[in-house]
Here is the input.
Amino acid sequence: MYQISPDESESTTIALLARLTGLLEPLRNFVKVKPVWGTCAGAILLAKAVISAKRGGQELLGGMSITIARNGWGSQVSADV
Here is the structure.
């Protein structure tokens, strides 16, 4: 099993970097043929659909037949830890 993304990364940033580096389509092809698992940002990226996506949408890998809801607490910058 492969974990695609670090747990504490932000899904929009990961998707943007994957697109800018030409990795988005190879990752989409990868998740079609390999078992994958994702938590936090990874789960968002692996979903087929997102509820409460950011304005402008959310690029997804679509490797899992799930619909996931993004959190309603804002960006990581404003998160209280």
User: Anything to note?
Assistant: Confidence is low (pLDDT under 50) at residues 5-9. The helical segments are 11-20, 24-33, 41-46. Residues 12 and 33 are 23 Å apart (CA to CA).
